[in-house]
Design a protein that fits this description.
The protein has one domain. 79% of the residues lie in helices and 0% in strands. The chain is built from twelve helices and no strands. Helix 10 runs antiparallel to helix 12.
Length: 304
């Protein structure tokens, strides 16, 4: 069942990204984040009331951190959607597994450095130095080669690079957000509460950013694109949280994590049908490299 929850989440996120792309023609990123958070917060509060789930929490700091990294990732992704082909923006945002591998590599290198310092000060210490994670490093290198193929630096216009870098580092913050969602689930926080506080953080962050950036002129009927952004985001977040909460063991978590890449396929199809955005063969090779590297990195992490 957890696999179906993740595939459903990926599909809904892809449809939501279409709405974001339309809304970005008339609204800036801060406004989309604000209205997405506000609409989702109202919807989740209504769902919590009807299901008897209290929104009071004993872990405000954990929710605050999840909101911070989640809003940062979402803002970068929304900006990328507005300035890049939909499939490209989704691919860059789906690199969370690769960024998790980078975190693990950095942690391992620091541990090796610390043990070597300990040996220098106390030669009698007999602690084994962990092996260098060559396999994980290989997945990271291959993934960033895939990024280069997707972005094609020699042919991409300079105006797209800020959006591309935002989408890339948005994936890094998405990795932190997924890790925090898993932590909150282990603490016993229901998915409704987790999504509510993330939506609250989105509304607050978007509102503050709007005061700095400014508010766009009222565009008329296209304002309605903001409504499905908030509704679909809330539903997709619940589906994703349910998927990770129901995964249980490492094997199921591995399956769930890899199924997020179905969102790239959904986004590519919607991008082609609705916006006429096609991806050249070299771009698809890059996407395959990123997906394969992400799946391999997830599998390697699960064995740790």
């Amino acid at each position: 069942m957890q696999a179906l929850w993740m595939v459903l989440a990926a599909l809904i996120f892809a449809v939501m990204s279409v709405c974001v792309k339309y809304a970005s023609q008339d609204f800036n990123t801060a406004e989309i984040i604000f209205y997405r958070g506000l609409i989702s917060m109202v919807l989740i509060a209504w769902m919590a009331k009807n299901s008897g789930v209290t929104l009071a929490t004993r872990y405000p700091r954990e929710h605050a951190w999840r909101s911070f990294v989640g809003v940062t990732s979402m803002g970068a992704w929304f900006y990328a959607i507005g300035h890049l082909p939909l499939a490209t923006a989704t691919t860059l945002n789906s690199m969370s597994s690769i960024w998790m591998a980078v975190f693990i590599i950095a942690q391992g290198l620091w541990l090796r450095h610390s043990l070597r310092k300990t040996y220098a000060a106390k030669p009698e210490t007999r602690l084994a130095i962990p092996a260098f994670p060559w396999a994980l490093v290989s997945t990271v290198v291959l993934s960033f080669i895939g990024v280069l193929l997707v972005l094609r630096p020699t042919s991409a216009p300079a105006s797209e690079w800020a959006a591309a870098m935002g989408g890339l580092f948005g994936g890094m913050f998405a990795a932190m957000a997924y890790m925090q969602v898993a932590t909150l689930s282990r603490m016993g926080e229901p998915e409704t509460r987790v999504v509510f506080y993330f939506s609250l953080g989105s509304a607050i962050a978007g509102g503050i950013a709007m005061l700095i950036i400014g508010i766009s002129p009222f565009p008329g009927w296209s304002t309605l694109w903001l409504l499905p952004v908030g509704i679909l985001a809330a539903i997709a977040q619940i589906c994703m949280t349910k998927a990770y909460a129901a995964a249980g063991g490492k094997r199921n978590t591995l399956v769930v994590a890899n199924l997020q890449y179905t969102g790239i396929v959904f986004a590519a199809l919607l991008s082609l049908m609705l916006f006429g955005e096609s991806i050249p063969l070299i771009g698809w090779i890059g996407i395959v490299l990123i997906v394969a590297s992400g799946a391999a990195a997830t599998a390697l992490r699960s064995r740790a």
